[in-house]
Amino acid sequence: KTTKADPTDPECNLFNLYLDEYDSKWTSQINRLDYLVISSGHWFYRPVIFYENETISGCQYCALPNTTQLPLYYGYTKALRTSLRAILENFKGLAFLRSFSPQHFEGGPWDKGGDCVRTRPYRRNETIPEGADLKIHDIQVEEFRAAEEEMKKKQGLRLRLMDTTQAMLLRPDGHPGRYGHMQTAA
Asked: Would you state the pLDDT for residue 23?
């Protein structure tokens, strides 16, 4: 479950993420679905305040005083686990967890001069998942395996991993041309 930290401020890019609560916007309708795809990852790179048991447990990229800075992986693991638990408890159809699509910036991160200018796909031996992209993928596989074990106890639910990380790593770009960056006067 997530909310904007200050919904009255359109410039606010800080979010509250309730790591142990379901978002009723989708869980209230889950029993009406035959298929469900969970696709996540990049959203978790933004400034977030983490809540557990209705209390702030820390934050990421927030620089709030007296608040513990927690890594991206902390919030991502718990949020994914909570989402998978919601599916296990409330869903009877076919669910897919689509793995993380790696970033495609070469020459640095997107905000430090990196760009997506590749015009042909990588060959299989030219690049490998690494760093944060690999860690997110590993978390997804680990949480999927744990959910898969729980699923075996449940009648009717089918859960599958659609591991697209390697295929998406090879694609030529993710943000063609100048559209991968904020437009500035320069």
From this structure: 92
